[in-house]
Amino acid sequence: MTAARILEDKGATVFTLRPSQTMHEAAVALTEYKVGAVIVTDGQDHPVGVFSERDLARAIAASGPAALSERVDTVMSTKLITATPADDIDTLLSLMTEKRIRHIIIMDDQRMVGVVSIGDVVKRKIAYAEAEAESLKAYIEGA
């Protein structure tokens, strides 16, 4: 199972914001798209950050409701962790665990082709383990 396959299954739509958008606009986008994070892109659609529900919560905790009028680029994560479509599920899971992140941007030749979340990875990992267990069970029962 590769990042490309995960994107085929779940879809490759990437929800984005611009750095100048407000946290209120970001909160509306997160709610509308039913996602936990959006990718912040520059004018050429290159990723420059990730804005998550955690970023929003931290900003509100620090500044109160006034944070909603601040720009997303003041709190977004800028240390982007990326992977390629060919990276396998174990590589993605290892990256997420090691870097303590929940979203990985999938890049193909400097072009963003999707985003994979920890939920996407865990869902596929469990499905693979269940299929493997069923296969072993069938093998044992048939022996």
The fourth-level CATH homologous superfamily is: CBS-domain
CATH names the topology as CBS-domain
Characterize the overall form: elongated
How many beta-strand elements? Answer: 6
Number of helices: 5
Instruction: Name the helicity range.
Output: 40-55%
H/E element sequence? HEHEEHEHEEH
Q: Low-confidence spans: pLDDT under 50, at least 5 residues?
A: none
How does the major sheet shape up?
A: 3 strands, mixed
Give the terminus-to-terminus CA distance: 28 Å
Task: State which percent range the strand residues make up.
Answer: 15-25%
Name the strands of the widest sheet in spatial order: 1-2-3
What class do helices, strands and sheet pairing give? alpha/beta
The overall number of domains is 1
CATH architecture: Roll
Mean pLDDT: 93
Radius of gyration: 18 Å
What keyword list fits this structure?
143 residues, alpha/beta, CBS-domain, 3-stranded mixed β-sheet, 46% helix, 20% strand
Describe the structure.
- This protein has a single domain (3-142), classed as Roll (CBS-domain), CATH 3.10.580.10.
- The radius of gyration is 18 Å and the shape is elongated.
- The strands form 2 sheets. A 3-stranded mixed beta sheet has the order 1-2-3.
- It has 143 residues and is of the alpha/beta class.
- The model has no long low-confidence stretch (mean pLDDT 93).
- Helix 2 (23-33) links the parallel strand 1 and strand 2.
- It has helices at residues 3-10, 23-33, 53-63, 89-99, 118-142, and strands at residues 16-17, 37-41, 47-52, 82-83, 103-108, 111-117.
- It is built from 5 helices and 6 strands, in the order H-E-H-E-E-H-E-H-E-E-H.
